[in-house]
Design a protein that fits this description.
By secondary structure, the protein is an alpha+beta fold. About 60% of the residues lie in helices and about 15% in strands. The strands form 2 sheets. A 4-stranded antiparallel beta sheet has the order 2-3-5-6, with no helix packed on it. A hairpin with a 5-residue loop joins β2 and β3. The longest helix has about 70 residues. It is elongated and about 155 Å long. It starts with a helix and ends in a 6-residue tail after the last helix. About 25% of the residues are buried.
Length: about 425
């Protein structure tokens, strides 16, 4: 990529669309990446995954807690000691205070902490791949819609050229009619031809407006914003079968599928570690103070403590074993899902490459046809001026020119969309 995705999203100097502003493809992509809601959601998912990817979330850091209890009570006492002394009291006030600071550090639990940390790292990588895939899809959508506007405008130019020629012919017919060498048939037919082209122009203007509105929708901008697009469709001509090979190496869906396999395998290891012993180191400081009526009026203790606690799972109804079996099945499914995605990616790459080669061959032919149709229209018009061609021959040549222009811009757009799809599959959409 020519720019970092995050650099584009975080940039504060992105272009602001003004009325009648010229919009380049680069500006359109930048605006789309800035405003697209799916991109913003994916970006938030990355932040959440980064936050979760911490040793503390995996349980590898010590836990420290403070507990304190303070109970005030009223007690009636009636005691008789072996010395014969008697102690009694009604509703005597007493107080019990306990304060403790406890720290606990996990020493071993079957490598579950390390496995969980690895899983969190894989989840963060997966969220980044999903973000990259979303970016590629948005860029591809914007490029396709942008070039669709260019394509429609290209055909509008063909109609404009055809209308100019028809108007010139109309002036010639009117001049001939005024001197009596042309009939009303020629005049009416030429006027109808001019009006038909004007009608096509109106339809094309509407189509261009609607196509621009769809582009503005992708950019998350107001659909009535006035934009000017002055661009041409330029296609690459050097794709080969390496597209299919690169699809497996670079495609985000394939990479994400492999990361999902890693995550499933790590979950399987985490569940297996639940069946292992768990050893903790515990330590802290306790303070206790008890004040009451009776023989012992005050009892106060304090001091540090340290020790180990060992927990060995023996039997829990086979829950952990079943969970491990389910996790193993999930891992197998992840492998199957990757194989499915690889097959889909390969199919898409082959289809895109075949379409590209086919459209490229057609485009070469159609470019020649368009030049021939343009030359034919010019020649027939010259013959008509000299009186060697009739109005029907001119009309037929004009229709051939318009149809050739329409096929040319459509093939150029089809070839460009095939190129965009191949680059999207290979994660190679440069912008």
């Amino acid at each position: 990529m020519k720019k970092s995705f995050f650099a584009i999203l975080l940039s504060s100097a992105l272009p602001v669309l003004c009325m009648g502003q010229r919009l380049s493809l680069q500006e359109a992509i930048n605006i789309a990446l800035k405003n697209n809601l799916d991109i913003q959601i994916s970006k938030n998912d990355i932040v959440a995954a980064e936050t979760a990817n911490h040793i503390g979330m995996a349980g590898g850091l010590p836990s420290v807690s403070i507990t304190a209890t303070d109970n005030q009570q009223l007690t009636s006492v009636n005691q008789e000691l072996n010395s014969g002394q008697k102690i009694s009291g009604n509703w005597s006030s007493g107080n019990t205070l306990n304060v403790g600071v406890t720290a606990s550090q996990l020493l071993y639990n079957g490598m579950k902490v390390q496995t969980t940390k690895q899983r969190l790292e894989e989840i963060e990588k997966l969220s980044r791949e999903q973000f990259n895939a979303d970016v590629q899809n948005v860029v591809a959508d914007v490029m396709r819609q942008y070039y669709l506007v260019v394509m429609q405008q290209g055909f509008a130019k063909t109609l404009e050229n055809s209308l100019s020629t028809a108007r010139q012919r109309l002036e010639i017919v009117r001049t001939r009619k005024s001197v009596g060498v042309a009939s009303n048939v020629d005049l009416y037919q030429t006027e109808i031809d001019v009006n038909n082209i004007k009608q096509q122009q109106h339809q094309q203007v509407l189509l261009i407006q609607q196509t621009k509105s769809d582009l503005l929708k992708l950019l998350n901008l107001s659909s009535d914003s006035a934009i000017i697009i002055s661009d041409t469709i330029v296609v690459e001509k050097h794709f080969d079968k390496s597209v299919v090979e690169n699809a497996f190496l670079k495609n985000y869906a394939v990479i994400a599928a492999q990361q999902q396999i890693n995550i499933s395998a790590l979950i399987e290891k985490e569940v297996a570690s639940l069946r292992m012993p768990s050893l903790r180191l515990n330590g802290g400081f306790n303070f206790g103070r008890s004040q009451s009526a009776g023989q012992v009026l005050l009892n106060q203790t304090y001091g540090p403590f340290i020790g180990l606690s060992l927990s060995i799972p023996i039997y829990n109804g086979g829950v952990y074993k079943r969970q491990q079996s389910i996790a193993a099945i999930d891992t197998k499914n992840a492998y199957l899902q990757k194989s499915k995605i690889e097959n889909e990616v390969q199919t898409a790459a082959v289809k895109a490459l075949n379409a590209y080669d086919n459209y490229l061959a057609q485009l070469t032919i159609e470019q020649g046809n368009y030049k021939l149709a343009d030359s034919l229209l010019y020649l027939i018009n010259q013959r008509y001026v000299l009186g060697y061609s009739n109005i029907l021959e001119v009309k037929e040549a004009e229709n051939s020119y318009i149809n050739a222009g329409y096929r040319l811009v459509n093939l150029s757009y089809a070839l460009k969309t095939a190129e965009i799809e191949m680059r999207r599959i290979m994660n190679d959409l440069n912008f």
